[in-house]
Amino acid sequence: MYNSFITVVCVLEHTHELRLLPDYLQNTFAVVRQHFTDFEFIVVNNNPEASADDAIEQLPDDLKHNVYLLNLSRATNHNHAVLAGLDRSNGDYTVIFEFDFYQQPELILQLFEHSRNEGADIVYMRARQRQAGAHFRPFYSLFYFILRRYSALEVDEMAHNTRVISRRALNSLLRLRENLRYMKAIYSIVGYKTRYLETDEPLHGREQESFSERFRTSLIAITSFTTFLRSLLLWIFLFSLVFLIGVIGNALKVKFTGVDLFGSAGEPYPGWTFLVILIAIFFATTCLNLYIMSIYLSNIYNEIKQRPLYILESIKRF
Questions:
Q1: Does residue 314 fall inside a structural domain?
Q2: Closest Cα partner for 251 from 280, 282, 288, 210?
Q3: Side-by-side strand order, sheet with 67-71
Q4: Cβ atoms 108, 8 nearer than 8 A
Q5: Distances (CA, A) of 54 to 19, 59, 132, 243
Q6: Per-residue model confidence as pLDDT tens digits over 34-86
Q7: Is residue 195 domain-shared with residue 95, that is, in the same domain?
Q8: Is the pTM value of this prediction over 0.90?
Q9: Do strands 159-166 and 194-199 pair parallel, antiparallel, or not at all (unpaired)?
Q10: In terms of residue numbers, what domain contains 193?
């Protein structure tokens, strides 16, 4: 038995999860009671229309006395609901344990032991495959390409939410009080030694989450954690310069030779060359102004978020 205090956090969002809650708690309770000296369960009810009280009341006393039920006043983003549980965690280690694994409670022990043996502060479950419809796959591929290309984040696209987090890593994570949260990116920002365990359980989106909700989550991640949009504006500006040079060259060539850059005959009208050049210059200037404004807005946005400039992993004396 390990002389450690472990907290198990789960989020209720769907009615079928409410039906599974008694089995979920009993299965995990059998493992943590046997291997840890202290433990607690934090159940976050993110579905105000459903009550979990009756499901918990029917449990044995030695189990339900270790359960803390957090009823949110209104349904919120899944990442925010997870944060509500993490805020109230008291354990030396905290395990975010999804309902997908409720029949494999031994994974809690495996995650903990892997963390201790590898000296890792975060250990997560990694799927071998993603279960998604054909219309979602290009969306996921594009999203993770942008994250890899336009940020310094090390985000594993096959990572489950299920993971164990040490106390010091959790304390650092809770310092990042982002209003727009994408937890996989925040785990990467926090750093610390991270490892994973592979599982055959496929990675899939939550059933009640629509495409529009997933799209909004992706926009949050892209705008909060990458420089993609600023880079996009830079490319638009560079394109506008090429366009400016091409339009001016074409207009001047038509004016003086009567033939455009493509070899087609053209008749220059009075004032036409000046008007085309003027429009092209204004287009390029507008794109330049947008790019400059995006740099300032990006800097202001980064300052407002007030992320810590660094996180100390440990201090040693010799």
A1: no
A2: 280
A3: 67-71, 36-45, 2-12, 93-96, 159-166, 122-127, 194-199
A4: yes
A5: 11, 9, 34, 67
A6: 889 898 998 888 888 878 888 888 888 888 888 888 888 777 778 888 888 88
A7: yes
A8: no
A9: unpaired
A10: 2-225
